[in-house]
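Data deposition worksheet. Section B asks for the primary sequence of the deposited chain exactly as it was used as input, without tags or linkers unless they were present during the calculation. Section C holds the resulting structure in token form. Section D is free text for depositor observations; keep each observation to a single sentence. Incomplete worksheets are returned to the depositor.
Section A, Depositor: J.P.
Section B:
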Amino acid sequence: MNRVKGSLDSGSTIKAINEGVSGVADAVSEGSEKLVDERVKIKNKTESADLVFEAGMDAFGSRASWATPETYDKFLEIEEGQRIKYNDAISSNDKKLAAKILREQKQRAVQQQTWKGVFDGLKDIDLLELDDDTKYIVGRMTSQSGEDFKPIYENGEMMIQFNNANGDPIKIRGTEFDKIISQNRKPIKEQEQIALLTQSLMDKKLKMQPFSFSDSLADVKKMITKENINSMMKGQLGMHETGSFLNSIENHPDFTRVSNAGMKLKIGNTDIAADADGDDVISGEEFMNLTADDKKAVIDLMQKPENFDIAQYYLAEFVAIAQQKKLQGYNPRIGNTNKRAEDFIKEVNSQE
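Section C:
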């Protein structure tokens, strides 16, 4: 029970609840809770998502604990129920069941630590512009308001259940919510890494080392992982005036000459007109026949885990092309001479 309490709060709310104090300092005010409830009921989906998200983040920012006192009590109700089962198992001398209940309690404590870690990190994360469904989910998770919002324990997993924007009940695991947040955070750390890589390329040019597109592509690919690729595709990377990768990729020249790249995109059951042979793979000449709708579908497909390799390649190329353009515009003076780096490099290349 102490492990569970420790995973739910930093201490202030636990102390207040244990002492029977009402209206703890880090709880959402009654007025704020009513506001959240009212916003949940708004029928217009986009407006509702925006308001629920704003209300949830405001409520979350006003409290010290990731869990509201109401959510805290609901977690403890689960633990109290499991404790009764444990006592019954002890009374009936069912040691096997008692041991199983203890193991599950430890697992729940670990899962609750996952929840705590996700919410603790959320306070220090800048989020990208979210779609309506994601806004609604994040808003409900942060406000934790409404009769439908409750933690549940099923099949060995601790989940949060509430109704989505359409009124249908959904269940979210801590790892799933962590994924939602990580995929929609601004890629600030990655921006800094790319800036360092680019500065390194500029330093090399000053030392008369020519730019290598393949080396740049390989360096960028190393920093793109399955955990950060969605964030990097959606967010600004500080290299393009055109914006993010997803906003720019539709105009990528490889949509007309991708056969040269030798990449294949798995499309599954997605209806893409260019898949002329119906093998559920877009490759070679098929990329040259994409319709406008096909391009939008391809962009969606590139964000799916099964197409990580092709998305990683194009995202790395997106950055490497930007680095190449920046290096072409960087022509520093060499030492105390009047000679520029580009001229020196051309001289060396001509001599070779």
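Section D:
The chain has 16 helices and five strands.
Residues 2-183 form one domain.
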